[in-house]
């Protein structure tokens, strides 16, 4: 099937996570189907205007060839808008009844796009059909994941084309976004997290031979480091603090494209959320993932499943395997919590910086595996084509 029209429904719940994925996904869908009408129907506009500075708080607007429509306006004018050939329901957002009733008669495919997970059951559930009361409309579950048998991970052409590991690229990007900061001869990383105690990280960095520059992204990250500053003296400048061998800069909020560019250029990334962690993995740089907290520490189940998929996807020598074990231990300790609190954790960051080059090689191998085998939109395109 080659669709003439595609509707993507999104409820913005988890701050920028849901709309961040859908915004990226809709751009790639439009690239795959340039002649198709692509619409995104969403329930909130504030987050969209922040991840894309050209977006506005208006009922409908065209961004990157995609028509974004405020859901309440879409409902009121539904008779004018109608349905599309393909419906994509992002993260179980519950499309309103009137749309579904018409779609059962006129649409061809209804895709329930689920959250990303590394759990093994995802492979069995991927592309399973859901029985609905329609002779023409087929509904399937599309399960993103970190394996070839899953739906894959979301990656876009522009992001991959801009990967550049050169020193000149790093300098150019940092100069573009931080023109008044001096990154010369410093290891540079971004930190984007939920609430967390970073005492161990700062103690470790101060014991390294080289200086480190941390770009702190997001209000929760910056408040987390403020807890450390309340107890320790620093040299203070405008939005910049110096603590021993560490420079810490409170960055502004960046658009999605700006964030992509920055994390591609720096040396390492500590990040959170589905969209951000996938970008951090794809750039092939050392990373830490602050996974979203869940009841009864179920987030640790999800993290370990991700690490299992990671491990089985790369071929390593003995030295790399030993480092991977220690690296994965750090990832678990980094996330082992029952609440998002500022209590000091047990993580030991030594391996991350002492074995930095080895971890980088491991991450480069994993990135290459995912790029070659787990492109979500290419997999989805192939599935739709064969219907």
General description of the model:
It is a single chain. The chain is of the alpha/beta class and 387 residues long. 43% of the residues lie in helices and 19% in strands. It has helices at 17-32, 46-51, 71-76, 78-81, 97-106, 121-125, 157-161, 167-177, 199-206, 219-229, 256-265, 274-282, 298-313, 318-335, 350-354, 356-373, 376-385, and strands spanning 5-10, 37-42, 60-63, 66-70, 86-90, 109-113, 129-130, 138-142, 186-192, 211-217, 235-237, 240-243, 246-250, 268-272, 287-290. It has an eight-stranded mixed beta sheet with strand order 3-4-2-1-5-6-8-7. Strands 11-12-13-10-9-14-15 form a seven-stranded mixed beta sheet, sandwiched between helices. α1 links the parallel β1 and β2 (37-42). α8 packs antiparallel against α11 (256-265), α13 (298-313) packs antiparallel against α14 and α14 (318-335) packs across α16. The longest helix has 18 residues, at 318-335. The radius of gyration is 22 Å and the shape is globular. The mean pLDDT is 95.
Question: Low-confidence parts, pLDDT < 50 over ≥5 residues?
Answer: none
Shape, principal axes of CA atoms: globular
Mean pLDDT level:
95
| Main beta-sheet annotation | 8 strands, mixed
How large, in whole angstroms, is the Cα Rg?
22 Å
Strand pairing plus helix content: what structural class? Answer: alpha/beta
Number of helices: 17
What is the number of beta strands?
Answer: 15
Strand content: 15-25%
Main-sheet strand order equals 3-4-2-1-5-6-8-7
Ends distance = 6 Å
* Helix content, binned percent: 40-55%
